[in-house]
Write a structure and sequence with these properties.
alpha/beta, single chain, Rossmann fold, globular
């Protein structure tokens, strides 16, 4: 496996409760020290996505979602195959452009990585100053386990 074969990107805002789910998941992956995996955390402005995934054949992005589903539910999307459902990635984001919009910009510029998987975890509390809800905290190990299986890293 090449040194830079897989990039895991966690996005979110540590000051807005469950919006930090992607960052927390990325930290779990970093602690595993998986060979061939690079981990990146993007908080706030995620416009660096297009630049950060250049040269990586496999990219995983993890973010919080808000869909009125049960808190802690994990969603998985093959973003290289088609657009993300914008409604999931828009309402809780404080990013200048939401994840779905950033990916569609990259698609239109033909700058998507060959494999782009997006995992979302349903949040419960996105208030300023809140920590991760227990439901999201419990979901993160499941999300990371599923992601590792999907990538053949289990």
């Amino acid at each position: 496996m090449d040194q830079a074969e897989i990039l895991i990107i966690g996005i979110g805002n540590i000051f807005r409760g469950d919006d930090a789910a992607g960052l927390a998941a990325a930290r779990l992956v970093r602690e595993m020290r998986l060979p061939g995996v690079t981990v990146l955390e993007l908080d706030g402005d995620i416009s660096a996505l297009l630049e950060s995934w250049q040269g990586f054949p496999k990219v995983v992005v993890i973010d919080a979602v808000a869909s009125e589903s049960e808190a802690g539910q994990v969603f998985r999307f093959a973003a290289h195959a088609g657009p993300l459902p914008r409604r999931l990635f828009a309402c809780c984001s404080c990013h200048s452009l939401g994840l779905a919009e950033q990916i569609e910009i990259a698609r239109s510029l033909k700058q998507l990585p060959p494999s782009l998987m997006v995992y979302g975890v349903e949040g419960k509390d996105f208030q300023l100053g809140a920590g991760l809800s227990p439901e999201v905290q419990e979901a993160l190990p499941r999300l990371v386990k599923q992601m590792r299986q999907d990538l053949g890293l289990a």
